[in-house]
Input
Amino acid sequence: MSNQEPRSSWVSVGAVGAALAVIAGAFGAHALAGRLDAHSLSLWETAARYLMYGSLGLIGLGLAQSTRPHRLYRAAGLALCLGTALFSSTVFALALGAPRILGAITPLGGLGMIAGFFLFALAARAGSIA
Output
């Protein structure tokens, strides 16, 4: 795999995630506003917001990786991508009435996001060690 592929992949995944976050936010504000209670709408908005945070992080990660490559970017990208997907998907599901036990999984996604951002910081700080 060339150096170009991972960077392009993280930027692409982040851009798709950001688009999905905007779609989810608009869907919640328009299609779900009259169908969900205030708490469920708040959950939906939280899921969309954190999907955007993770997606923007992936875009930044891909761009940073292109200027200062480091092996930690791969781990950071995986943790951030999987953490964001797990966190947001479980919160979206809870907003739509999924069993509350699903909420026990949500913090794992949050931990994945936190780990991804910390790994991103370490990779950026470490410089260009391949």
Observations:
- The two ends are 14 Å apart (CA to CA).
- Residues 4-126 form one domain.
- The chain has four helices and no strands.
- The helical segments are 4-30, 38-67, 72-95, 106-126.
